[in-house]
Amino acid sequence: MIIRTGDGEVDIALLENKGLLEYHNEKLDKGFNVGDLFLGRIKRLVPGLNAAFVDVGYEKDAFLHYHDLGPKVKSLQKYISQGITGKRDSGLLNDFEIEPDIDKNGKIDQVLKANRHILVQIAKEPISTKGPRLTCELSIAGRYIVLVPFSERISVSQKIKSREERERLRRLISSIRPKNFGVIVRTVAENKRVAELDADMRNLTDRWKKSFEGFTSTKPPAKVLGEIDRTNVILRDLLSPSFNQIVVDDQTFYNDVCSYLKTISPESEKIVKLHKGRADVMEHFGIEKQIKSLFGKHVTMKSGAYLVIEHTEAMHVIDVNSGNTAKGEKSQEDSAIKVNIEAAEEIARQLRLRDMGGLVVVDFIDMRQNDNRKLLLSKLKEFMSADRAKHQVLPVSRFGLVEITRQRVRPEMAIKTAEKCPTCKGTGEVQAAITVIDEIENNLRSLMEEAKPKTVTVAAHPFVSAFLQKGIYGYQRKWFKSYKKWINIEPKTVLTLLDYEFLDKDGKEILF
After folding, report:
1. Distance between terminal CA atoms of the chain?
2. φ, ψ for residue 21 (rounded to 5)?
3. Could you tell me the pTM of the whole model?
4. Cis check: omega of the bond before 221, within 30 degrees of 0
5. Cβ atoms of residues 361 and 315 within 8 Å
6. Complete DSSP assignment for 141-206
7. φ and ψ of 33, to 5 deg
8. Phi, psi at residue 337, to the nearest 5°?
9. Furthest C-alpha separation in the chain
10. What is the pLDDT of residues 184-238, one digit of tens each?
11. For the chain: N or C, fewer Cβ within 10 A?
């Protein structure tokens, strides 16, 4: 995991065998994260949609459907009422009497009333023109367990296969579970000791108490409990023995990550490293270059085959093209299955990388043999098995199409890889590189005369950097004669052709 901070946001990249697997960009001041608890006010009921619109402080009212109320919504309403009126002074539910479940086929106006306060959780972040989507089935996730108020049920992850281990975990949780709280045991709890599970349980119970204090001391709309930030969510959900390095480029953030790892996995603290190089951490690990090549409309694979990815309002469409790969195969069918399997692996990666959700239609290369279609489907499901988002893959149709639905809870990761040239305005002609060089030379002269830094590095687009370093008697030797200092040159993919920076010994931009 590579973490880069700056300008009020955090970039997080997950690498596997040096290949980019996931990329997240998190705004630090974003107010509506999945998992946040809000005290909202019901603005209006819409019986035709069997839903309510709730004011949680976003510019558009949030959407709450009847099916997202959950069976225990009456218990939740009673709990809120007791807290706000002062009849309850503790968030614990030891003395709380659970109300009967609501009718799963009921109507929204039978349960909720306009202008009432309601405690809700963000289920989907604001996407496009839509406000957040809400749920009243509250849950607080920890490292090993998920705490579910107003329930008595204990569930164990289906990925834990051992019957003995499942029973052991049920017995342990039963002995430490607070009254009127249900628990979902996560996969990472397998073979964990009771002390670790109990510590996680206490932490989640304390967070629930904090939410009680939050909604009883404020007026809607207000956030009463924030989900931990995206970096720590990824650490919590993904951290496993397969992680061998976490690199952070900021000292404060490094301390935060180490502190969080101490609470969830002390043995993993040693794999956290602080990046101290002058080069940008994403540049150092080759991530910027991968981003530019992987987020475009065309994605080329190792064999030479490529994908064309189109995004529409209704769905995402992916077309698989063989390119020049068919030459070495005995038959068209052999070529098709080989390219399709390679494409299936890349498509599974692209879905995670771009966090594409909703309906995805893939046009694979046509195959005549039914066995090959079955093989392709099984391979696609295998490649997608590591995806944490809920998804469903339908069989290959007669026309070679595969439909995939994938859960979307956050805005899709979209990165522009094609830009209009700031000089030619799209005409296809740019000013000569020498004009950019002249500008660098003039500003470097001013910098050396005014600021007189001890160490200077010129960071520029790789084309410009190569031009500066060209030949034995390049610009560096010329600058050395003029300023009696060796000026380093650093190629930086993230910079455009006309951009450049002067960096100090720590890799920070020199402003003058």
Report:
1. 34
2. -105, -45
3. 0.62
4. yes
5. yes
6. E-SSEEEEET---EEE-TT---HHHHHHHHHHHHHHPPTTEEEEE-GGGTT--HHHHHHHHHHHHH
7. -100, 150
8. -70, -35
9. 85
10. 999 888 888 898 899 899 989 999 999 998 888 888 899 998 866 666 676 766 6
11. C
